[in-house]
Specification:
The chain is mostly helical. The chain contains eight helices and no strands. The chain is globular, with a radius of gyration of 17 Å.
Length: 207
C-alpha cells in the first residue's frame, strides 16, 4: 500500500507537470505578478501544458515503443540522457516561441526559460551523475513561490509556500522509499533546481 502511495505521488508530481503548475501559480495564485490578460490565461495555460507535458509524454512513449528506453521510470543514468535531451529541446522551443512570437509577459517568459535552463543543466549533470529530476523541478517551483511570497507577501501566500515545500519533501521521501534515488541525489536535485531559479527570480522581482 505504501509503495503504491509513493508511486502515485511520484506520478502526480512528475517533472513534466511542474512547468504547468508554475504557470498556474503565476496566473491564478498570484495574478498580480504578471500582465497577462485574464481572458488569455486559460488558453496560454493549455498551450504550455500541451508543449511541456503532452508532446514530451508522446515523445517518451515513442521511445518506449521503439525500445530506445526500457522503462518510463528511467532507473539507469544512461537511459536518461536521450529523453532529457529531447525534452530540453521541446522546452527550449516553447520558450523561444513565447519570447519571439508572443512576448506577453517578462515573468512568464523568464519562468519558461528557467525551466529550460534547469533541464539543460540537469541533462549535462546526468552524463556524469544520476540526480533527481523530480526534485530539480520542484526546487524550481519552490524558488519561484519563495520569491513571490516575499514580493507579494500575504498570509495565504505564506501558507502556499509551506504547501509547496511540503509537497517537495513528500515527493523526495517517495523517491527514497521507491529506491529510485539515494539521499544525496535527492538533495542535489533540489539544490540544483532551487539554486538556478531563486537568484534569477529574485533579481527580476526584487530589483
Amino acid at each position: 500500500m505504501c509503495r503504491k502511495l509513493a508511486m502515485g505521488i511520484s506520478v502526480v508530481f512528475q517533472p513534466l507537470v511542474i512547468p504547468s503548475l508554475m504557470v498556474l501559480t503565476l496566473f491564478y495564485i498570484v495574478p498580480e505578478a504578471t500582465m497577462v490578460p485574464g481572458e488569455a490565461k486559460w488558453s496560454i495555460s493549455l498551450l504550455i501544458g500541451f508543449t511541456t507535458f503532452l508532446i514530451p509524454v508522446l515523445g517518451l512513449a515513442g521511445m518506449r515503443i521503439s525500445t530506445l528506453i526500457h522503462s518510463y521510470h528511467l532507473p539507469d543514468r544512461k537511459d536518461r540522457v536521450l529523453p532529457f535531451t529531447l525534452v530540453t529541446v521541446f522546452y527550449a522551443m516553447t520558450s523561444g516561441f513565447f519570447y519571439w512570437k508572443l512576448n506577453v509577459d517578462q515573468l512568464l517568459i523568464t519562468t519558461l526559460a528557467m525551466v529550460s535552463i534547469s533541464l539543460l543543466v540537469l541533462t549535462i549533470v546526468t552524463y556524469f551523475w544520476k540526480i533527481s529530476a523530480h526534485q530539480t523541478a520542484l526546487g524550481g517551483w519552490v524558488a519561484l513561490v519563495a520569491v513571490l511570497s516575499v514580493r507579494f507577501y500575504s498570509t495565504p501566500m505564506f501558507y502556499y509556500l509551506l504547501l509547496i515545500i511540503s509537497i517537495s519533501g513528500l515527493v523526495g521521501t517517495a523517491r527514497l522509499y521507491l529506491n529510485a534515488h539515494k539521499p544525496n541525489e535527492v538533495y542535489a536535485g533540489f539544490a540544483l533546481g532551487f539554486g538556478i531559479n531563486f537568484f534569477v527570480f529574485y533579481s527580476l522581482l526584487m530589483a
